[in-house]
TrEMBL record:
Residues annotated as signal peptide: none
Record-linked NCBIfam families: HAD-SF-IA-v1
Keyword line: Hydrolase
GO molecular function, one term: hydrolase activity
The EC number(s) this enzyme carries: 3.1.3.18
Protein name: phosphoglycolate phosphatase
Species: Coprobacter tertius
Amino acid sequence: MKKLVIFDLDGTLLNTIDDLAVSTNFALSCCGFPEHKVSQYKYFVGNGIAKLFERALPENERNEQNIARMRMYFLEHYTVNNTCHTVPYDGIPDLLRSLADQDVKLAVASNKYQQGTEKLIDYYFGDIPFIAVLGQREGVPVKPDPVIIEEILGVAGISRDETLYTGDSGVDMQTAKNAGVESVGVTWGFRSKGELLENGACHVVDYPGELLKYMSERL
Ligand SMILES: O=C(O)COP(=O)(O)O
């Protein structure tokens, strides 16, 4: 029986890629560096914003000072422009609502910085009763470290066996494995089915409706 579903945010609940790309390109251009195509950002996102900046910077410019400058310009732009193009994936609001109606506990575990994670969840899913909305926080290791999952299990009072973790990247599948939790990889996000399987996805789904069916067989 599954009683808790933990969701990744970027590429799983929300398609955030355009806003992330626009704000990172803004920061790159403020720093005098070349921009990237939106499609490239699908491979830059997933390990938190410091890693996003490192990957976006030219190879010989990847240093602490440039990452700090990128962070400043990015946050200035993204803080006010993070809901311009971002949308929930088709079927996600219905999936969350149906799970909540069936008394399944819901939580978010993201590598996006905490304030951004909370703002987007509140803006797009304000009516969904998430028991925990956790992003990247100072001093807490990012996914694939399992600490974020362990924190959510503690808040929920639910065991590993009763938990499902859902995400769109190899990092997400590794996180679930490291936490000893069953994983479902989703193919509507930023990464390929191959990446999900290579990183130990227990199951892979192509539509939110499939996840709902999978869950209803396990309630
Ligand atoms: O900000 C990121 O790197 C991605 O965050 P995610 O963990 O929600 O995919």
